Amino acid sequence: MARRSIGFAFLACLLTVSVSTPAEETSDTLARDIFKELIEINTTESSGNTTAAAQAVARRLRDAGYPAQDVQVVGANDRKKNLVARLRGSGRHPPILLIGHLDVVEARREDWSTDPFQFVEKDGNFYGRGTQDTKGGDAIMVAALIRLKKEGLRPSRDIILALTADEETGDANGVDWLLKNRRELVDAQFVLNTDGASVTSERGVAQYFGVDAAEKIYADYQLSTANPGGHSSRPVPENAIYELVAGLARLGTHEFPFELNDVTRAYYERMAAIEGGQRAADMRAILRTPPDPQAIGRLSRDPLDHATLHTTCVATRLEAGHANNALPQRAQATVNCRILPGHSPEEVRQDLLGVLADPKITVRYITSDGRVTDTASDGLRSSPPVLRADVMRPLEKLVAATWHGIPVIPTMSVGASDGVYTNAAGLPTYLVSGIAIDRDDNRAHGQDERLGIESFYRGNEFFYQYLKVLTKN
Q: Residues 96-120, buried b or exposed e (16+ Cβ, 10 A)?
């Protein structure tokens, strides 16, 4: 144990010393310049252009010495193309794939204190739409590939980079398209996804390094009722609004079953070691066989724990009626579900029909391109990947050296990312970014989105070092 600690301290010393060297300053400057360029290219659904961002990265890679055939901008939509680049290795091991999305959510200038599409540095932060989600990670990956190329290092495996469109919204998801149409460009042994912060901190102090090794499946459903309507002066018992609202009330009180998988079980095992009091005791209690139902109930009062332990479905939109003085002929709601791995959208659609318990309420699936269908696809059903030793062991060593021994904890994303496509395609996917964000400063999709300058630079060096370890001969 003492020898291991000395090794970590030595690596930490090397990383600390490297911060002040000219080479590291050049690396940080390169990453910052890429970051700035990406932020200032509008890649929103309404008015942006992901192709422009992909082409900007392609130019940088070609200028760094990448052959044209190893840097491609491809896709089915002229405004939403994807960048795919490959650093050739010795072929001793199968390739790894790095993914990040170029598109960002909408941002209105009047809502922000700065222009969301200008890269602004102030108060120890970089501001701009996409700083957290996820152009910071994109810039770090591009900088790492340029640095490896310029240093002449030949990795033991090919490193593939895919920066893609329509992760946030839209009908031209780049990862899905690449897997279906150009699988040969992105096929890999496993995937590293940078869509999010790995390090959770409090007031700038790192608490733990989370590795998203699983994620819930995103699914939208359209609930609707209809009847003939009539004049509002002569109400009748059959009312489309009342029928739908009664069903939604039943959904509002419904609890989907408690469930752990390999990743969430590992998460609670490790979190119990760093938490205290009743919360730690409850974490241990849900791991028993059988789990303690009271402990499940107490943990489920926290929204994050509730989402980690259960599939969730919630009404997010409601529309009904056609005139103030007419009985409603139609009522319609949108319900958004986040489904635990191993279950499918169609399975949950059937569950919703049972919960609503009213044959007058139809439940239809809303596809990613906005179509409404009577059944949902089972295509994204997948189980969490195995926690690969060749991914986790070097990660744990480097994390310990970089953040002074904080634990590495497997986590399940309760949101959604492009990892849902790669995992379903049989490519084990792990979110590893090296970026730290305070618990109370997660501004992704929000006003004045920002990323700490120190967090960005540390993440930049960390990711480069991690890639070198993963691909050493």
A: bbbbbbbbbbebeeeebeeebbebb
Cβ atoms within 10 Å, residue 241:
15
Percentages helix, strand, coil for the chain (3-state, rounded to 5) are 40, 20, 40
> Do residues 211 and 194 touch, judged by C-beta distance below 8 A?
no
How many domains, in total, are found in the chain? 2
| One domain for residues 229 and 300 | yes
pLDDT tens per residue across span 155-183: 999 999 999 999 998 889 999 999 999 99
pTM for the predicted model, two decimal places: 0.86
For tokens 């600690």, the residue is 5
Boundary (domain end) residue, out of 338, 373, 408: 373
d(CA 347, CA 11): 49
Q: What does the longest C-alpha to C-alpha distance in the chain come to?
A: 84
Domain that holds residue 287: 217-373
Three-state DSSP class for residue 79: coil
- Asked, as a colleague might, if the bond just before 290 is cis with ω within 30 of 0, I would say yes
Q: For 37-64, write each residue's pLDDT tens digit.
A: 999 999 999 999 999 999 999 999 999 9
Write out the two tokens for 120: 């602004």
State whether 369 and 449 are in the same domain. Answer: no
Q: Is residue 379 part of a domain?
A: no
CA dist 310 and 349 (Å) reads 16
**One domain, residues 137 and 8:** yes
Which CATH number characterizes residue 266's domain?
Answer: 3.30.70.360
CB of 345 within 8 A of CB of 380?
yes
Residue 381 resides in a domain: no
The helix/strand/coil state of 86 is: strand
Position of tokens 């490896």? Answer: 148
For residues 44 and 161, state if they share a domain. Answer: yes
